[in-house]
Amino acid sequence: MPGSPSEPHEPSEPYEPSEPYEPSEPYESAAPYEPSEPYDLAVIGAGPAGLAGAVTACELGLSVTVLDAAPQTGGQYFRHPAPGLGAARPQALHHDWSEFTALRGRFEASGVTHLPHHHVWTVRPPDGDGIWTVHALTGPDAHGGTPARVRARTILLATGAYERQLPFPGWTLPGVIGAGGAQAMLKSGLVLPGRRIVVAGSGPLLLAVASSLAAAGARVPAVVEASGYLGYARRPYALAAGPHKLLEAAVHGSALLRHRTPLRTRSAVTEAHGTDRVEAVTVSRLDRAWRPVPGTGRRIACDALAVGHGLVPQTELATGLGCATRRTPDGTHALALDALQESSVPGLWAAGETGGTGGWDLARTEGELAGIAVAARLRGLPALTRSRRARALARRRDRLRAFADVMAAAHAPGPGWTAWLPDDTDVCRCEEVTAGSIRGAAGALGARDARTVKLLTRAGMGWCQGRMCGAAVACLAAEGGRGGGRGDGAGGGAEGGTAQGTVPPSAERRPLAVPVPLGALADLPEESGRHRTAD
Q1: How far is Cα 124 from Cα 524, in angstroms, rounded to an integer?
Q2: Measured torsion, CA atoms of residues 76, 80, 84, 85, in degrees rounded to the nearest 10
Q3: How far, in Å, CA of 502 to CA of 500, rounded?
Q4: What is the distance in angstroms between the CA of the first residue and the CA of the last residue of the chain?
């Protein structure tokens, strides 16, 4: 999601320019380890929120470690090419690169222990000793990784978000990828998913993706936005908090005009066509509830489709611990956090997209505020949270969050989108469960939530654990098998509406956040046995 400051940054100490870009050495998986003394703070995620939280806490005297699945810092927003690609200008595809490198420079100079290639699969709460335990698998991916365990007095979750996908006929064809995935391919691999790429879905990410692809040499025949933009105009005071973001959107819009890329609002890709890979898409007009308008379908030739309908906060680790969640304006579940970013579980803080998507500047601000709050708790200095610095961060956080809520409401999926979903379309790609099977479970068998549908059809039991199909399964279950978008959907429907209260299922509690080999579970120390059998 595009994110850039709405006003100059307000840290207590100005960011110093970082050293010239020099990639770190490739990470080599280490043997299992256990620090003899627990860290004061373990941060999970090395994006802007995690880096800001770690640096702030370390500068306030805490011992800090950061665990992240990626080999480099930056998270999804500041993905950049691997060292082996020899990119001369990694900043070319990024806004605010200088601010990120300044934050990265502080991080590298701070003394924070960085643990890359650490795939965290569960977090165990304190058991009388006040110490949290973070379990991870090390290596390029979680499969077959070496188990590792990190102990800390407090936890900061900065796990980010993943894309929401709403299925349609042909969405399983090769060449159909996530909008964020297309951007990630370009940022980290310097490759394009095709030469003629339609960008579709809903949300401000689409403009950034399309302009990046066009700048890299791709032909973008259309940007297809399911929502409109009138919802922004209905909240002028919130918009005033994000003039820089509006300017950024204008820059992207100008780039599309320069590349002669049309923007089609109130429209959606309702079918993808092809044999071995996508060859064309059908774009249809939508009514205000996101139902396709009959007779408006238009075929557009392409060799790739980048599609996404917003972002879903990644909360599995937190909900597995019983953290409370809240409904966001676009119908997803985010963590419910207090004024200092602490969750409903004492000792566990969160920052960034985990508490609701809103861009990198909001994530950085929340991370810094969380770092102050953790330091205040552990050092017994509550005055830190009432300092001028903390108050300024809280005000900035509130302004940026208000702007983020306007964006979320403006692009919330409407309930009628399921009208473009025939019964024979695969919804759960991993288990090949069709829309008809899910509707049958909801109608004939009475399933009314995603969990019950999963038990009856296996939808969501595959490798992605429902990340790709979860929103669609929830919407179809809420309809009760009727189809056609007559029930509650993934979002609020009308322009600028709110999705709060429209998605029936709550976030599920799972003891494992990522797939874990049975051998890793068997090798857990006896003291973790209670957690192995939880839930």
Answers
A1: 12
A2: 120
A3: 6
A4: 34
Q: What are phi and psi of 8, to 5 degrees?
A: -55, 145
> What is the reported pLDDT for 509?
64
CA distance 171 to 282: 12
Please state the separation of Cα 190 from the chain's center in Å: 21
Instruction: Please tell me the total number of residues recorded for the chain in this structure.
Output: 535
Per-residue pLDDT reduced to its tens digit, 413-437: 999 999 999 999 999 999 999 999 9
Top-confidence residue, 306 or 26: 306
Q: Strand, coil or helix: what is 354? A: helix
DSSP string across 178-229: EHHHHHHHHHHH---S-SBEEEEEESTHHHHHHHHHHHTT-B---EEESS-S
Q: Give this prediction's pTM.
A: 0.85
**Tell me: the pLDDT tens digits for 153-195?**
999 999 999 999 999 999 999 999 999 999 888 888 888 999 9
Strand duo 146-157 + 132-138: pairing: antiparallel
Query: What would you report as the CA-atom Rg of the chain, rounded to the nearest whole angstrom?
Result: 23
